[in-house]
Design a protein that fits this description.
Chain B: GO terms for molecular function: ATP binding; metal ion binding; nucleotidyltransferase activity; RNA binding. The complex is a heterodimer of chains A (263) and B (335). By secondary structure, chain A is α/β, with parallel strands linked by helices. Chain A is built from eight helices and twelve strands. The chains are: A alpha/beta (263), B alpha+beta (335).
Chain lengths: 263, 335
């Protein structure tokens, strides 16, 4: 009876199977939460998606690439790596499954709270705020996916304030939860830098945080970080599998890591 | 006076690549006239000027003659009678010796356009060997994505060999060598630079015992220096005038690579200055280099950050030192 969080799979199905074997995953006992970005970039996005949909004990938060898949499923054009999914006879089912997935999952275990998001949580929001914003975003996606993908795309606004209209609020929330890497103390994002350095000289989002001792934030998205936050409370699980790195699982019960190398 | 766009920027434009910065050559002018026109002279030895607005480099057409060892053993000759063709003749490669006038007309006396088409790196003349740095610079050209698949003509290969045999590489200034390597580090295929240098034995004396490379995992040039140093167990980067920022990163990387579980010295951990260098340590670890024990280092940093150093401030200085050693001993015992 263990709960694992697994980092960005990006269509690396063989690696996922190998990792599940390594942790002796038993779907009737164990559960898995993914940090999002199940698909795109790698070759077996369809296989990963079908596998995750099959198991009741598997859940995921949505990553930017998953939202992009939703957009592709609704649109006319699909990128090469997502074609198999978008042309599939079950594409409606895929869409229905995806739009119901949350942007944030909170899991309480052994007196600790583990908060799982794809990219990050801005320092200008409390954890409580973030849960409300994430829920609101999920609701808007689920209720009207067509409209959501129409307006949810874009780098602006890159900062939250309480005067934003509904569409702007969707956009900034989506950017925080699924795209952020660097931001300043008031939550203004640098969405252009994706390495280890912010061209705008902003800090990494988690470096602004002073988190309650019993809380952990688990995220993916940032392959360049290669899982190195050097902070016990912020656990980065994207270890660049699709780029030739590793796929990582984190067991919540005893806060232990499991890794396999890209095949 | 007539100005022409010359060199790498013309080449890059012809290859359909946005050039970094444009260089210009000025024919039929004099330093006095240039200064009069508002240009700012730079460089002690060359008749080179900065445009007052664009800050692009404008050089008077000149010829060069080698007169001794090293970079300073050059004689320049410039006066209004030096032609554009004279100036192009002193350049290194045919693809870099194409000029463009203000109407966009190309002046290409050495058929550089053919070599661009056939992807050839061909020397303009035998004067190529007059600046030995040009041998190393060939490697830098290969590190550009749009030039990486060019091949070097047999004649130029022979000249590179001649430069190597002449021992002239020893007389290069380390600053000039560093500038070439650092530019290569910022390009798409820095490994092609190093592989060229190794293949042609141009590594000595500047990059002793360097290995061939498959590629860098870092996309940032500072981190590529760290990677290079770790992959090659470099000990003598001291020869090259690296910026202090890179020197610091390399020295942290060396310390990290030396940490071993059964050989942990408390002083070693202490000297890492983990709190001050946390960001740099994070950068180095993110490279996932196999020469260092990532898990061990991560564990050390996390345990170190748990230590309440502020409490030490309350103690008197002697006690503080002892207590700090105790805390670090405690840390090591938890590994």
């Amino acid at each position: 009876m263990s709960t694992y969080v697994i980092g960005d799979v990006h269509g690396c199905f063989n690696e996922l199977k190998k990792l599940l074997k390594k942790i002796s995953f038993n779907p009737s006992k164990d559960s898995i939460i993914f940090t999002g970005d199940l698909v795109n970039r790698g070759n077996q996005s369809l296989e990963v998606l079908e596998f995750c949909m099959k198991e009741k004990s598997i859940d995921t938060v949505l990553g930017n690439h998953d939202v992009f898949l939703i957009k592709s499923l609704l649109g006319k054009k699909s990128p090469e790596r997502l074609k198999k999914i978008c042309a599939h006879k079950n594409k409606k089912k895929f869409l229905q499954w995806l739009v119901k997935k949350p942007f944030l999952i909170s899991k309480k275990l052994n007196g600790k709270e583990f908060i799982i998001v794809h990219a990050g949580i801005p320092p200008s929001w409390s954890i409580k705020d973030t849960k409300v914003f994430a829920k609101r975003l999920s609701k808007n996606l689920k209720n009207n996916p067509e409209q959501f993908v129409q307006h949810a795309w874009g780098n602006k606004p890159n900062t939250w304030n309480n005067k934003l209209n509904d569409e702007e609020l969707d956009r900034v929330t989506l950017n925080y939860l699924t795209r952020m890497r660097f931001c300043n103390a008031s939550g203004k994002m640098d969405l252009k830098s994706n390495g280890l350095f912010s061209k705008m000289k902003f800090k990494k989002w988690f470096q602004h945080w002073d988190l309650d001792e019993n809380k952990r934030v688990i995220f993916g998205h940032w392959a360049a970080l290669n899982g190195k936050t050097l902070n016990r409370q912020f656990i980065g699980l994207d270890t660049a599998c699709v780029w030739g790195g590793k796929l990582t699982a984190f067991r919540l019960d005893d806060e232990t890591f499991f890794q396999i190398k890209k095949i | 006076m007539k100005t022409y766009q010359v060199g790498g920027s013309v080449r890059d434009e012809l290859l359909g690549v946005e050039p970094h910065d444009k260089d210009w050559v000025v024919v039929g002018s004099s330093p006095e006239e240039m200064i009069e026109a508002g240009f700012r002279p730079i460089g002690k030895d060359f008749p080179v000027f900065l445009h007052p607005d664009t800050k692009e480099e404008y050089a008077l057409a000149r010829t060069e003659r080698k007169s001794g060892k090293g970079y300073h053993g050059f004689k320049f000759y410039y006066d209004p009678s030096v032609t554009l063709e004279d100036d192009l003749l002193r350049r290194d490669l045919t693809i870099n010796a194409i000029a463009k006038d203000s109407q966009g007309k190309l002046i290409d006396p050495f058929n550089g356009q053919d070599d661009l088409l056939n992807k050839k790196l061909r020397n303009v003349s035998n004067a190529f060997c007059e600046d030995p740095l040009r041998a190393i610079r060939l490697g830098r050209f290969l590190s550009y994505k749009h030039i990486s698949d060019f091949s070097i003509t047999p004649q130029l290969k022979a000249i590179v060999k001649k430069i190597l045999d002449s021992g002239e590489l020893n007389y290069l200034s380390s600053d000039r060598v560093f500038a070439e390597i650092d530019k290569a580090m910022q390009n798409h295929f820095p490994e092609k630079f190093f592989n060229f240098v190794v293949e042609n034995k141009l590594d000595k004396p500047w990059l002793k015992d360097i290995n061939s490379l498959d590629g860098f995992s870092a996309s940032n040039s500072d981190l590529r220096w760290v990677e290079l140093s770790c992959l090659n167990h470099f000990t003598d980067f001291d020869q090259i005038p690296l910026p202090s920022k890179i020197k610091k990163l390399i020295s942290i990387a060396k310390q990290l690579a030396n940490i071993e579980i059964d050989n942990i010295l408390i002083e070693n951990i202490d000297s890492l200055r983990i709190l001050r260098n946390e960001e740099d340590i994070m950068r180095i670890l993110s490279l996932g280099l196999e020469c260092m024990d990532q898990n061990l280092i991560t564990k050390i940093v996390l345990l170190y950050k748990d230590i309440k150093f502020a409490e030490l401030e309350k103690l008197d200085p002697n006690e503080r030192k002892n207590e700090k050693i105790n805390l670090l001993k405690d840390l090591v015992s938890k590994l």
